[in-house]
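Retro notes
What went well: the complex prediction finally ran end to end.
Inputs used:
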Amino acid sequence: MSPVFDNIDLFVDGFLTSLRIILYALAGALPLGVLIAACRVSPIPPLRAFGTFWVTTFRNTPLTVVLVFCAFGLPELGINRSFFAFGVLGLVLYTSAFVCEAVRSGINSVPAGQAEAARSIGLNFTQGLRFVVLPQALRTVVPPLGSVLIAMMKNSAVVGAFGVGGDLWSTGQRLTSALGYETLPIFVGGVAVGYLVITLTSGALLQVLERKVAIAR
Amino acid sequence: MSQQQAVLYDAQGPRARRRTQIGTVVAVLVLLGLAFVVYRRLDERGQFSMEKWGPLIDPGNEVFDSVWRLIGTGILNTLRAAAVAMVLSVVLGTLIAVARLSLGRAGRIPLIGLVELFRGVPVVVLVYIGVRVLPDVGLDMREWPGGQVFWGLIIGLTVYNMVIFAEIVRAGVASLPRGQREAALATGLTNWQTMRIVLLPQAFRTMLPAIISQLIVVLKDTSLVTFIANYDELLSQGESIQRNLGNPIQTFFVVALIYIAINYALGRLAQYIERRQARAGRSTEQPAETAGLTPVGGAPVGGGA
């Protein structure tokens, strides 16, 4: 364990960088995913087709392939950004497909009778959505969306492995390969524990949230 | 699909239909515009040249054969790693699930801890531990058939996925009607026989879609090894092709297409089985509780990786 404590400042830095990746990815993937979900449930056929195309593409491609596409493909088109930006972009695109599916399944879980009842008491489309469908949909969305987001936090390690410097993963990598520390304590005691702190905390928060919004059906 | 539309809006009248038609035209124009911008950009940068595409699509090209031989080996290696990891994860996961269901509280708690622990660590970290750390601490896998990196990858993927399968199987057994177990015990089967002959076969049937969905995750995760060590799976092969030919967009496009084709087919298979079971379920009154498990690949802290 001491190799970890000797470099605890590096690990704290790495932890914070990982959190930064996660927060940026969250800020991008949530709105984008909701937007794609809106496309997929809209009455307009081309938008639905576009949503389906998006989800099929990004759900069936490994995150690694999305990342190499961003980092090696986009520069070919004259788009040059930092590896960090490309990494976050890849994670956002990939996660948005899963966010979309979680949101869509939430909307689909609302029984049709609810919307019909809303219409029959005279609510218009927006009102029905706002007062009847969405409040119920959001509650069902919480558990699957939470697990998508926790998977995204774990996937931030892939972004790190991909070459974004300074996050938890890269810190472990640097300590073992450049500075010659033993791999076992660094990766099991340092890197894995760092990610566990993130995922287990989020998991616990998620459970609290789930209990708060839970409804009996 | 039709059911989902019924949730949000009624069958459309003439005015709504006209609005939809206008929306359709606008959306088509916007999407075509976007596609055109991307096309222009690609074209300007010479991304449609035969120089870049030739090795991949022109059988007359001198490197066409070797490129596709590389890709072919890559596909085989990816499938091999995914299949072995999958089989091991299902077997170990089932064992964990059975242990968790049949042991008393004293045995259950460490198992739950184990499950939570492995589920919380990114799979890429586990693959790294398998490939790099285990050999460092003295596990010599060089003599094993397939070599060290292969087995390191398999160990990493298996450890991660077996706990997810444990959860899937446990949920499957828990979703069976209680009478099944009671009846089996009443006919004189032992606990173990009940599990093996009555509960597990039924649980596997209900869980089949979730298991296939997880196979997609495993298949995608095999590509993680690219960043860690040399194992010639599909993405690594694509990497070395584009490094030699200087056509990243084209090569990774083909690589992505292959992944999408395989995974899409698996996804459809899962859907097909689920639908068939839902039909069969109605006649035999079996609760098909898989629906909640399939969309993101399973367990609560799940594996949409």
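What we learned: Chain B touches chain A through 68 residues (CB under 8 Å).
What to try next: split runs per interface for comparison.
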